[in-house]
Amino acid sequence: MEHAGMSKDHVKRAAVQSVDRAIEVLEILSRDGWSGVTEVANGLGVHKSTAYRLLSTLKDRGLVEQDAGTERYRLGLGIVALASSVAADFDIARSAWPICQRLSEQTQETVTVTVLVGEEAVVIYQATSPSSVISVDWTGRHVPLHCTSDGKTLLAHVPENWQRRVLERPLERFTENTIVDPAHLEEQLQAIRDEGSAYVIEEFEVGLSSVAAPIRSVSGTVIAALSVSGPSFRLPPSAIPALRELTAAAAADISRRLGFHRKSVGTEWLRDSAPGAIES
Predict the structure, then answer these.
(1) Residue 2: pLDDT band by 50, 70, 90 thresholds?
(2) What DSSP character marks residue 278?
(3) Which of 12, 21, 163, 166 is 20 to 30 A away from residue 47, measured at CA?
(4) How far does the chain reach from its first CA to its final CA, in angstroms?
């Protein structure tokens, strides 16, 4: 048993070392540009066969490309694709932060910007009012799509075939208020598209309520959600309509900063696509 455990540890260490070396290869090509196998091997301090295997794997994944004539390597377009998604998030956060700060001051609550990553919503920016009773930092946190206002906002605007696949899977219940009936949730998503904003009352956490509205790119595609969240005793049902109006107006301001103008793209942008949407 001890020998088997050591073997597993050895495999894990080898896998981590391979990842580390692959990252080093990318750093070498980023620094030196076109490089041959020998140069990469020398930079890593490994045998040429090891460098070749690493380069071949990275080439297969599109992260490295090879010149057919010289057989030298450089960074591939796959790197650009990976970097562009991060750059887009930075652009959203940069455009959103002054508006988020203002909205947080107006509402005295926590304001977040969330994007779609796979089948979860991920918070990329947070503004918190000094008087807010919520001190949790949500930045980087993954939240479910079906029971949060920002998650529902994103889910409401993904392509129908992708949304259907999400609704066909079991929906986790977090509180007594969590909607786990797909038909009911689908009706709510339609209402979100019709009304332009979403709200939840203690669906994800007991005592927590929130509202959210979509942020759109220049093409009209929903690329993020702006939400305001706070304790339910400070956000009773009677306060929701006014809060939805404030949040929708702030989301529209961010969208304009990103170049979106509704008249220029018509009304067909409602269900176009969303970041991270899975193609059928």
Answers:
(1) very low
(2) P
(3) 12
(4) 45
Per CATH, the number for 83-271 is 3.30.450.40
Which segments of 118-257 are extended strands (E)? 120-128, 142-143, 198-201, 208-216, 222-231
Going from N- to C-terminal start, the domains of the chain cover 2-75, 83-271
The DSSP-derived string for 29-48 is HHHH-SB-HHHHHHHHTS-H
* Assigned architecture for domain 2-75: Orthogonal Bundle (1.10)
Give 269's contacts (C-beta < 8 A, 6+ positions apart). 216, 219, 220, 221
Q: Which two tokens stand for residue 140?
A: 């980087």
CB 113 within 8 A of CB 125: yes
- Pair of tokens at residue 262: 């509704």
Residues 119-146 pLDDT 10s? 788 898 899 877 665 567 778 888 899 9
User: pTM for the complete prediction?
Assistant: 0.66
Biggest CA pair distance of the chain: 70
3-state secondary structure of 253: helix
Q: Are 212 and 225 in contact (CB under 8 A)?
A: yes
